[in-house]
Structure formats: structure tokens, C-alpha cells
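Hello, quick one for you while I still have it in my head. A protein chain has come my way and I'm curious about its shape. I'm sending you its amino acid sequence along with the C-alpha cells. I'd be grateful if you could look everything over and explain what you see. Here's the protein in full, and shout if anything looks odd to you:
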Amino acid sequence: MKLSRKAVVKARFADQVRFLGSVIRAPRSVGAIAPTSAETARMMASHIDLASGLPVLELGPGTGAITSAILETGLSPARLLAVEYSAAFCRLLNDRFPGAQFLQGDAFDLAATLSDRLGDAAPDRFDCVISGLPLLNFEKEKRVQLLRSALSVLEPGRPFVQFSYGIIPPVPVTDPDIAVTRSRWNFRNVPPARVWVYRRRS
């Protein structure tokens, strides 16, 4: 069922209020003053390979701006697994995107979160990892460890996708086996952002 323009505007306003509430309660866990723009979200989701048959892992979905773009690619909700720290956002996401799986947990402790929540049912490999986490809010060591954890659950050559507001890579890389690319700036995002893609060379 397609929502009317009025309903879409109302839903976006409600998301903005929830998002700002999260900023006030836990500013360190939120990296912006507004949800990710649709254009940035689509840029991130464009890295999904539907033909792989593998699930997609989303980190930090928040109110679901990137989640919407992921599912708009045609990915079956059953192939989407997401880790969200906020229990309130998890409840919202489960209601908004039936069929997808949202786990309340810590993406920076990815192995433990997947193991604790899914046990033996946790997927061995993902097609890609798409992250909306505010990485620049965290110390370098945590960012590097997150990248390593994400790459460890990916097929070789498949991407870890992260958006950032900074001019330098959100995760510094010294490993020559990891390739890093970046998109153009998206000035429609608030604040302006670009998409970074990390891959372990085959």
C-alpha cells in the first residue's frame, strides 16, 4: 500500500522527532542531527549483489532510512539482518519492516551479538555490511576492530559500506590487502556526507 504524500511527510517528521530525542539522550551514539538522506542511503544500498543469494548485514539502522533503501533494491526482507543498539528503535524497525530481522545489541562486539542472539542460526557469510554507525564518535581502535569484524563475515572482495561526514576515511587503513574507495560528496545530506567502501582484496 502506497502512502499519501501527507502520510509520508508525517512519518518523516515523526522519525525526525525520534532521532532528535535519541541525540538528546545519547549524543555519542548518534552522529547527525537528521536521519540519513534518501540519496545517501541509495548510494550505500547500490553495493548489494542480489544475485549472490547471501544475506545483508546492516549496522546501526536507527529509524530505518538506510533500511528502506536496502529493501527497495528488491532484497527479500528475509535476507536482511540488522544490529541496532537502541531497544526503542528495534521495536520501531520490527513494526515498520516485517520479515526483516532486527537484533538489539552492540555492533562493536559483532561476533558476540550475533552468537548471543542467533546461536547456531547466525549466518556464516554476508553479501555486504552496510553501516550507519557514527564511527567518528568513537576512538580509532574501536573503528579498526569493527572493520576487521565486518570483513571477517564477508565473502572475499565483498564490501563494508560506511557513510561519513569527515574528509578523511572513517576507518584508517594501513593493511595493503584492504582497498578503500569513496563517493562524491552528497550535499543533500545534513550535514553533507559521502560513502566509503572497504574491501579485502581477493
